[in-house]
Predict the 3D structure of the following.
Amino acid sequence: MLTRSQLQVLQDYGVAPSGFGSVVVDSNLTPDQAIGDNVVPPQYRELHRLMRPHLRVMTVGYRGYDDHVHLGQLVIHHDLVGDMQAKFRGMFRQGFPIQAVVPESQVGYDDEASMLRNHTSGYRPGPMINGHYDDHFKAIAVDINPYTNPFMVTDDNGVTTVDPPGAHYDPAAKGALYRTSPTRLLWHASGPNVGRSYGWAGNWGDPQADPEEFYKIGYFDYQHFYPADAWYDSIPLPAAIKVQL
């Protein structure tokens, strides 16, 4: 039996009531289960406690890899909820396929385990890197179909590392993102019906796409969307997490 909130999402996405019976529910957790305080790694629990009031669990719809309508859950910063509903509605109307949207708490916040399952997700506690906390710890970034759209980096010796292991990036694959794809452009767009503009980390390794990021040539994170433009710095966050050294 679908809940009232799930039915509302389906109606908002334009799904006819006759199709409700075939909907696949990938995640139907309580907020406490989705955020998973008890599975946060011990070293991040204090910062997680500070982030907790900013976290929201939202139900989203999408076309599955099996071509059925699916419902899942995304843990995201409260300031981004409207944007996320607009972007997911847009992807749904495009027919863009998503494997599953499942909070990372369900794999104990093990990012590699989540990526290997091709789970789209948002919030994830993690370490400080290069003087700042990752946008996933700030709950302001989303990774979409991470096994289909892996992280790839090529070092100075020409050796390429792919994460998750075993993944292969093919822009023609089902659920793949690429620079000129309608879905990447949807995330970049801004307006009343699509929310604010988001950057795409699949551009980071391309000097033609982002010349100011030339130092990242060979660095591609095809799954990753993050807030773009000046509003990034206005998102309310705990001081301990917002700090940038």
